[in-house]
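Request:
You are asked to prepare a plain-text protein record giving the amino acid sequence and the C-alpha cells, at your earliest convenience.
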Amino acid sequence: MGGFIAANFAITHPQMTQGVILLDPAGINSPEPSDIARIFTEQGQNMFLPETLAEFREFFAMVMAKPPYMPKFILNTIGDNHIARRAAYEHIFNDFFDKDLLENKLKNLKAPALLIWGKQDRILHVSAAPIWQAGIPNCQTVTMDDIGHVPSMEAQKRTITAMNDFLAAI
C-alpha cells in the first residue's frame, strides 16, 4: 500500500513533493482482476489474511514471480508473525477499501513520477499500469516482464537503476 500512500501524499501535498516512486501501487480499479482479487471474489477467501502457515505459504507464493531463496524456518517465522498480526492486517485491509480511490485524482499528481510494475504481479494486475501512466501528467513507466509484486526484492539491481536514473533527472 506504499504506492497508494505516496500518491495520496503527492496529490495532497504537492509543495512537499519533489518526485514520487510507485512500485506496483494499489489505489485504482484494475481493468483486469488479479489472481488474488479473483480468489477473493469467486471463493470469498482473503489471501491477505491467512490463518495457518500453509495458507501463508500459499499467499507468499503469489507475491513474487522470482522470490529470493529463503530458508524454511525464516519463511515460517515471517508467516507466524503475519498470522499473529492478522487482526491488524484485517483492520488495514478493511480501511483500505473505505478509502477513495485515485482514478479521478491522478491528474492532480503534479510531481514527476516513476511507476515500476512487474508484469507477473498476481496481487495487483499490471493492466492498472496504463491507467496510472495516462492519469499522471509526468509519469515514466518501467515494466518488468519476469517480475511479480515486489520488484525491489525480485530485481534489486534493475529497480535501483531505474530509481537512480529517475532521481538524477528530477
Remarks:
- The CA atoms of residues 65 and 140 lie 23 Å apart.
- The mean pLDDT is 94.
- The two ends are 24 Å apart (CA to CA).
- The domain at 2-169 is CATH 3.40.50.1820 (Rossmann fold).
